[in-house]
């Protein structure tokens, strides 16, 4: 079974399809049902969903930490809007904006660390050579 043949099973990305192709050899002795079950499970964990949108492999506790931080930032931004509407002195508003930017940097660092430990490592282990170039482009955009 080749990676191109796996499109009939709904495999969304080349890396996940390649991982299934590599694992196919192990399932030949267990029959077609075992292979179909494996593909079904792999598809659920595929880095791309059925709609073609890539999915993260980040742990739930990281997702919760990110959402918690973003909720705080959202509150800070609403506060800044209120400060502007009330005519608060510009220096005070700018200090709050700097605090929000620092908080967003913290979110970026946490997400970047999680991305490296999960998504990138997983794609490299699946034999996807494009992940390094993609990651370098992301870092370049973040450093602008």
Description:
This protein has 144 residues and is mainly alpha-helical. The chain folds into two domains: 3-44, no CATH class; 60-142, Metal-sensitive repressor, helix protomer (Methane Monooxygenase Hydroxylase, Chain G, domain 1, Up-down Bundle), CATH 1.20.58.1000. The chain is built from five helices and no strands. Helix 1 runs antiparallel to helix 2 and helix 3 (60-86) runs antiparallel to helix 4. The chain is elongated and about 55 Å long. Residues 5-12 have low confidence and may be disordered. Pfam families: Trns_repr_metal. It comes from Thermotalea metallivorans.
> How does the helix and strand content classify structurally?
mainly alpha
CATH superfamily of the largest domain: Metal-sensitive repressor, helix protomer
Helix content: over 70%
> Helix segment count?
5
Assign an overall shape.
Answer: elongated
Overall CATH class of the largest domain: Mainly Alpha
Reading the helices and strands in chain order gives HHHHH
Secondary structure blueprint with pairings:
Blueprint: H1 14-27, H2 31-44, H3 60-86, H4 90-125, H5 130-142
Pick out its properties:
144 residues; mainly alpha; Methane Monooxygenase Hydroxylase, Chain G, domain 1; 5 helices; elongated
Q: Briefly, what is this?
A:
With 144 residues, the chain is an all-alpha fold. It contains 5 helices and no strands.
